[in-house]
Structures are given as structure tokens and as C-alpha cells.
Amino acid sequence: MRRLMPSLGAALLGGLVVLPAATAVAQQATVSDTIVTGTRIPTPAERVPASITVLTRRDIEERGYQTLAEALTAVPGLRIAQLGGPGQQASVFLRGTNSRHTLVLLDGVPLNDPSEPNAAFNFGNELLFDVERIEVLRGPASALYGSAALGGVVNLVTRRAPPDRAFVPYGELAGGTQRTVRAGAGATGTVGAFDYLLSAQSFSTRGFNATAQRLPDTGERDGLRGVFTTARLGWTPVEGTRVEGLLRWRQNNFGLDSVPRDDPNYSAEDRRWYGQVRGETRLFDGAWTTGLRLAATEDRRRFVNGRDSLSASTADDLFIGTRTTLDWGNTVRLPGAGALTDGALGFGVTHSFEEVRSASGSPFFRTTVDATQHNTGGYATLQYRLLERLDMTAGLRHDATTGFTDETTWRLGAVLAVPEVGSRVRASGGTGFAAPSLFQRFGIIGSTFRGNPDLRPERSIGWEVGAETDFPAFGRPAFATTSATYFQSRIRDLINFNAGFNTLNNVDRARIQGVELGLTLRPAAWFETTAAWTVTGAFDDATGQRLPRRPEHVVSVTARVVPVPRVVVAPTVLFTGRSPEGAFASYNDQGVAFTYPRSNPPGTVVNVTATWQALDRAALFLEARNLGNSRFEPANGFSTPGRSVLVGTRFAL
Q1: In the CATH scheme, what architecture does the domain 4-652 have?
Q2: What is the pTM for the complete model shown?
């Protein structure tokens, strides 16, 4: 890796093209071609100075994505490590950063659970029936979104009502192997000045035994029963003014796999309430848009384990985390000045209140948190276009959290369009931070461990440079798009246990560099394929050791094939290279006992989804997963779920 990275970086700076700022995907007519996540100001995708991948509703359906974790598997620079099937813990490592360094938003509101010990997000819990679009921003974005956006941001955008129809019902019904049943129904529309959305989905599966086959054969299937409901009501009394409210509820019940010996009656319930009310209006002939939002989330996770033949011990663990957010945001369109055009200023203030109540573990070694904290952040962003081809942005933010040092972050970026050769060159840099979680500051474990209220935020500085180029051939203006992005970051003040394991300190540092390479081919209207190869070097800066669960190589190949009219076939091949394992393993491996960190071997998973648009508003689909029945372990001891097939129908009347 040490030899490979400089050569790839030199090749990039020598003139290779860079990974697309937005993955080349065809979008539905109802989806805007603007991006909000990258700048907080609606901006055309090709003019955003950041590495952003956009997955549309069409992508979700044609590729058969069921969970958020599954949808993100082919995103360049992003690695998913899931401990089993749907519902099980799924962690994201975005550009080599820790799993707690990715901020997840729903319509711009943070979803990360404050009661999770590291304030990380479980990507295996989210179903996608009510999601219109997923935007993934790679790179430090704390200047835009504050804490936890050290590695990047994932923004889920819910479905929107069509402006010209009063009633649009839609739904799906599917079933398949492992006793899997997936059903969803919804309706949306616009009636006069009002619009609405009602959506519900249920998902159940018997699941798989995700415990690796090389371990003692005590595993059993761990299934999932999940329910999602979403409701939105919007009012647009006059053009440019809107008020809306959104409620979303999710509950998942599932069994848990564990290693080295799978527990037969270890189960969990994970549910979340989410709600927001927001209003927005345009002032001064639309030059100034201002909006106010009040949002709240409550996460409640319960884990129960009863006595069984393996152990007489029991557990009843409860985690409750709430967050209330008040956000005032503004966008002011600025006048041009000579060669400068398309100016915009964004600014606002966000205040949040977080509370955690949790208790877990045995009575003799109980882990508890009972704490609250306030955070207030103010931000400003500025963007302009020079000579109709150079887009420049700058951002600055200051966050103040009760009990520890304030944090100021910044971000700069530019995109240069070179239409003469069909290229776009992009460069950006900035800083990020992740505030310590409430467990890290105030957690208690028995009489031996106390959190450290004086912890500092984890901090990073990073930059990237790259470009993408479209190549015409055979009468097609974009027959091929080649791309590459070089990124680098340094992280300091990482939080870890002290030598006595009785508290936490800011003791670690990391250095990360990598390259994201991409190639998209469009030889015909009926065929398009994209290959992405990410090379990552993530190291402990003190020891030089590779960071766990960050594979050096990750490759994805996706395609969209239309062999005959109204039929779409979407295959996906995912290769994950070898990665070190940071979790300690203590069990027999093929008869040999060991207690030391292991590497996760490489693995390949092949999926395919086929859709037949049988009628104008009704389709039949088949989703096949892990066709080769790979036993690849994304995390030590946990295998990829086995081969499965789901057949169903989808309609939108």
C-alpha cells in the first residue's frame, strides 16, 4: 500500500480523471438535478465541489435495495461491516474514518442515536419504502453540519407529492426464501394548497444463521420483523411560502447473532419516533429564503437474553436517547459583480438538546448513563461562479457544547468546468470534528469505570483533488466517463480507553489516504455499467498499524441492462479485500484455540435484480442475493447472509 498510494496519486496529478462528483445514474423526472447536502444551498450536481453519490428512487427499485446498508454497498469510498442480516448492527467506515464519524440525516435532520455508546448509526435498521433519494457526501463536512460529520454525511430524502395529481396510490408485495414477506402501501397527492403523503411498510424474514461456519455449530437463524409508517402534510398558501409537518415511526424486532457461541434466545427491539414541523418563505422577490424548523427524535433500544442451556445468566438492557433540534436557515441570492455570477450566501443557527437514559449488563457489572447536553452552532456559506466555469464555495461554522471546548470548522472548494474536453476538475478541503458521546463523558461501569467529562472532540483536517471526463464515441456524446479522486486526512484526539481501562482519554491519532477510481460505459441506450475501485490506506499514526475493518481494496461493478423493451436487469458484483480485525476473538478455529486479532479474508458477493414493466403502472420483479452463496465475513465471525430470492409486484396508479 505504501508503494501503491504515491504512484496512484502521481498518476492522478499527472492528468488522470477523477471519480464523479455525482455517480452517473439516470434520474426520474420527478427528482431534481440539484444537490443540497454538499453546500446547504440547492446547487446543480456537476457544480458541487465535493464527492457526492446520489441514489434515486429508480436506483432503489431497479437494484432491489431493501435496507440502507444494502443501498450503500456500492458507494465509492464507503465500506459496510454488518454483523448479520437486516436489523443487525451495520457500521459504515467512510473514507477510512471510524463508524461514529458519519452523520446521518433525514430531510436534513440528524438521526444518529445519542444513546449509542459511540453515538454511531446502525445502517442495518432503515428500510427504504418512503425514501425518494439518498445523497452521500464524502469528506469532512462539519463546517456545514457540525459534530459527527468528520468523515461525511448520508442524507435520506423522503418521497414528495406530485404537484398535479390529487391521489396517487402506490405499493408493493413480495415474498421469497427464508419465509421473507415484504409489503408496502402508500398514497400521495396535492389538493389545492395542501399536499400529503401516507406510507407504511412491513418486512419479515426468518433470516440466516450469520455465525461463521468455522465456529462451533451452535448457531440458529435470526430473523427480523419490521414496521415503518410515515405521514406528511404540507400547506403552500402562496408561491414561495410553505409549512409542513412530518411524522415517522419505525420498529424492528429481531434475533441477534453472537460469537463464538450463538445465543439461542438473545433478541432485540429497536424503535424510533421522528417528527418535524418547518416553515419556509421567500422575501424580497425571492432573493432571500428563510426557514424555521423544530424536530425531535426518540430512539428506544431493548436487548433481552434469558437463561438457556449455554448460560444461566440473563440480561435486560435498555437504551433511550432523545434529541430536540431547533434550526433557523437562510439562503440569500447575491447580485453578480463583473465576471462573478450565481452568488449565494447561506447562514443559520442550530440548537439541539440531547438526553440519554441507559442501563445494560449484569447487576454486578452494570453500565449506566444518565446525562444531558446542549449544543448551539452557527454557520455561514458563500458561493460564486467565475467566468461561467469556475464554481467556488467557502464555509465556516462554530459549535459550542456544554462542558467542553468550543469547535470552529471550515471548508473550501472549487469545481472547474472544461467543456472543450468534456472534463470537470474538483478540489476541496476542510476540517471536521466529532464530539464525545454522552457515554464517553458520563458513562459508569460498575465500580471500575467512569467516563471523562473533560474529553476533547475528535478533530480532522482533510482534502481531495480530482476530475472526471466524458469521452464521445460511436455517435454517443458520453460513451465513457473515466474518473479518479485522491483524498487525504489526518485525525487527532481520537478517544480510547486508558491503560487502566477505568476511563477514556484523547490518546490516538490516524492518517488516511486513498484513491477512488471509476469507469462508466454507455455503449448503447440499452446498456450502462459502472465500475468503482477504492484503494484506502488507514493507519494508526503512532504505531503505523493498519486500522481495523478498513480493507485496502474495495471494488464494485453495477450495470443496467434492457435486453428487451420494458425489462431491466441490474446485476451487482461486490469485492472486498482483506482487512485487519480489531475485535479480539477467543474461540476454536478448526480445532486451534486463539485469542488475538485476526484479519478478515477477502470475499465477493453477486446480486441481481430483474424488473418487468408488465403494465404502464405495474411491474413484476425478482431480487436474487448472494448468488454464489459466499460465506465472506465482513466482520470477524459473522458471515454474509446466504443465497436468497424474492419475487414480487410493484405498482403506482
Answers
A1: Beta Barrel (2.40)
A2: 0.92
